[in-house]
Design brief:
mainly beta; 46% strand; single chain; 6% helix
Length: 309
């Protein structure tokens, strides 16, 4: 049981209603109402990623948690493969003496987004939730206490934001999105009877600026060489890089995120001069491809010796 530090969002009970009209000769007809859906995608939760919850949420999303170590700290490793994520029961409460307390059963994280940087110093994990039972009334919520540890901060990544295993001090933020692209399947009921995986997608990017250090990466992405000569044309070769971050609270508490093969998609690149000068922003990243069968690995050190899934 985990108590999450909610920053934004929330889950909603789902009861969608449709109407079928028929010819009754009325100006304001009386169409037949019916329920089309109970459950499915129920909303997003943005939470602060703490030592006890950051790696846990990745494990729930990826569906794997391998625990190693003989004593504290224990290492939790989650690597992408073909497994579905972990089913959860999520409890949501609002109010004090008159509470609105809801349950969301058989819930999966269908999409997870990790975001942190200079413009978002506190690490956030946003999870998009799908639930087969969405919004059941709850009279007896289980008790879960806050761990009382601070969430990971961008300042804890200093010297550990790497491109191809080289540290780049110019990196000022990162975004990682893991989208499982689940579909609801309704059989003989308006509630989903299962969630069907489609072709998922992982994307990751570092935000930085054009500098002496990052310019060779940009040149390689455009020209397939870090040292283009006069007249070198933009090249059709796809450039890949390995992106990595490690947030270190202490020697025994950390979270490391590795994507070994990321397409460098320069997108809408602006290299035009400005009369006002200033830094030129640069985004390095794109779709994550598997290397050795794995597109993403998350390694967490914590005091928890039990598997998170």
């Amino acid at each position: 049981m985990r108590r999450l530090r909610l920053r934004d969002g929330g889950l909603k009970p789902i009861k969608e209603i449709g109407y079928e009209p028929y010819v009754d000769g009325s100006t304001f007809p009386d169409p037949t109402p019916y329920v089309t859906r109970l459950g499915g995608e129920v909303g997003d939760l943005t939470v602060q990623a703490q030592i006890e919850t950051g790696g846990f949420l990745f494990a729930q999303l990826i569906g794997v948690d391998v625990v190693t170590g003989a004593s504290d700290p224990w290492t939790h490793t989650s690597s992408t493969g073909n497994l579905l994520g972990g089913y959860q029961t999520i409890y949501q409460e609002m109010g004090d003496t008159q509470k609105v307390s809801l349950q969301f059963w058989d819930a999966l994280i269908s999409k997870g987004v990790w975001r942190v940087g200079q413009d978002q110093m506190v690490a956030h994990f946003t999870e998009t939730i799908r639930a087969m039972q969405a919004g059941a009334w709850n009279a007896n919520s289980p008790s879960a206490s806050d761990s009382a540890t601070d969430p990971y901060l961008w300042s804890e990544v200093t010297t550990f934001a790497t491109i191809d295993a080289t540290s780049y001090g110019e990196v000022n933020g990162e975004t990682l999105e893991v989208d499982r692209k689940l579909d609801d399947y309704q059989g003989d009921d308006v509630r989903p009877c299962c969630f069907v995986p489609t072709a998922g997608e992982i994307t990751r990017s570092f935000s930085t600026i054009v500098s002496n250090n990052t310019l060779p990466i940009l040149k390689s992405a455009l020209y397939n060489t870090a040292s283009p000569t006069d007249g070198t044309a933009v090249n059709a070769t796809i450039k890949h890089v390995a992106l990595g971050t490690k947030f270190v609270r202490s020697a025994s508490r950390s979270i490391e995120i590795q994507t070994p093969k990321v397409v460098v998609d320069i997108g809408d690149l602006d290299l035009a001069p400005s009369p006002d000068g200033g830094a030129k922003n640069l985004t390095i990243g794109g779709r994550c491809r598997p290397s050795g069968g794995t597109a993403l690995t998350v390694i967490s050190k914590s005091g928890d010796n039990t598997a998170w899934i």
